[in-house]
Design goal:
The complex is a heterodimer of chains A (114) and B (113). With 114 residues, chain A is mostly beta strands. Chain A has no helices and 11 strands. In chain A, strand 4 and strand 5 form a beta hairpin. Helices cover 0% and strands 51% of the residues of chain B. Chain B starts with a strand and ends with a strand. The chains are: A mainly beta (114), B mainly beta (113). Chains A and B meet through strand 4, strand 5 and strand 9 of A and strand 5, strand 9 and strand 10 of B.
Amino acid sequence: EDQVTQSPEALRLQEGESSSLNCSYTVSGLRGLFWYRQDPGKGPEFLFTLYSAGEEKEKERLKATLTKKESFLHITAPKPEDSATYLCAVQAGGYGGATNKLIFGTGTLLAVQP
Amino acid sequence: NAGVTQTPKFQVLKTGQSMTLQCAQDMNHNSMYWYRQDPGMGLRLIYYSASEGTTDKGEVPNGYNVSRLNKREFSLRLESAAPSQTSVYFCASSGTRGTGELFFGEGSRLTVL
């Protein structure tokens, strides 16, 4: 069964304290792994797509990396405005090409204190 | 730039009542989706429409129906609401077939008493 697990469930950091969020997955043929950010009361906002092991993507203080079993979202010198829930999702090869079925993890709630 | 717009933002229903959640996107996207988000469960796909005129079931379709009214609009209907349908509902769209880059609306919070 295709599955996505995110850890930790919640993370509290001091401003400037770097850390990483984990997304481990088991899928039948990974087509893509996606990171989203979700602010309270809002819909998820797309951040990154990773397609193959070894790939990395960066955006401001965020860097996403991918291995064959997991992805990390590294947050360097976070600021309070980085506080949000970060969602990981995978697209499996078992689904037809006509669909964008994503399997979402339950997210990591990040709080960055000033 | 409105993106994906959902209405209503909040709704309280009694068990057995019906209602329709509306969604419209102004990005000329072909594909649209309805997800529900529950604590500890993650986002789960209810129905999707790969293109105008087509709809397909997702992971949790029971108790719901959808209509792709035109390229812009995709509605979700609860014919007889149940407490288990209390959730936050998100509509999303994507422009490229097969991409996982979705654009989400702000959500509709539904409570069924």
